[in-house]
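Minimal example, chain plus heme C.
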Amino acid sequence: MKIFTVVICSVMLIAAFALAENVQNNGESMMTINGGSRGEVPFPHEKHQQVLGDCNHCHNIFPQEAGAIEKLNADGTLSSKQVMNQCKGCHKTLKDAGKTTGPTKCGDCHIRKD
Ligand code: HEC
Ligand code: HEC
Ligand code: HEC
């Protein structure tokens, strides 16, 4: 009886850890940016914060608020693809310099809708 309880508890503990790790990898650290007709853009925000250090590589054109890009796109403060061109521009500059960088092709940023 005692052994049985220990086994059940261990299994539950392992399941709980597996679940927590899954949330860490797929949930919390990945943002999703609305990419319009071309499909949404998964964006690792934390990774950029760590690698780039300076927040103003991006937040020079939109504030540090959820939904800021869509709001500024809607009222015309940001022009179409302005944020996208900032993302792509940095990735391309680093690529040309032979440094570790992010995607520069449409399909490597956007996930096409079905
Ligand atoms: C490579 C680009 C980039 C860099 C660098 C960056 N951010 Fe962001 N940040 C974004 C994007 C994109 C969003 C989403 C905006 C939206 O929802 O419209 C965002 C949203 C946010 C938000 C609101 C959403 C949330 O997570 O609560 C905060 C706060 C934020 N950033 C803080 C920071 C800080 C602090 C730094 C610097 C340490 C930083 N960001 C660096 C691109 C960046
Ligand atoms: C580095 C990542 C990245 C790459 C590469 C990229 N995009 Fe984007 N794209 C984004 C982001 C982020 C947005 C949303 C922010 C914005 O509109 O500026 C976006 C927005 C868009 C939009 C919506 C614009 C609007 O105003 O409705 C279209 C359409 C689009 N992209 C098409 C493309 C095409 C076509 C390519 C390839 C030639 C491409 N994108 C390459 C990240 C990327
Ligand atoms: C100022 C430079 C800069 C800007 C702006 C920038 N990135 Fe990046 N991005 C990087 C660098 C550097 C890496 C490589 C990070 C690494 O793997 O060490 C990267 C990596 C990535 C990756 C791949 C991450 C991985 O785990 O392989 C994606 C996706 C990405 N960026 C999307 C975006 C999007 C979307 C935006 C705009 C909202 C953006 N980036 C803006 C510099 C930038």
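The pocket of heme C (ligand 3) is lined by residues 41, 43-44, 47-48, 51-52, 57-58, 83, 86-87, 90-91, 94, 100-103, 109 (CB under 6 Å). Residues 2-28 form the longest helix (27 residues).
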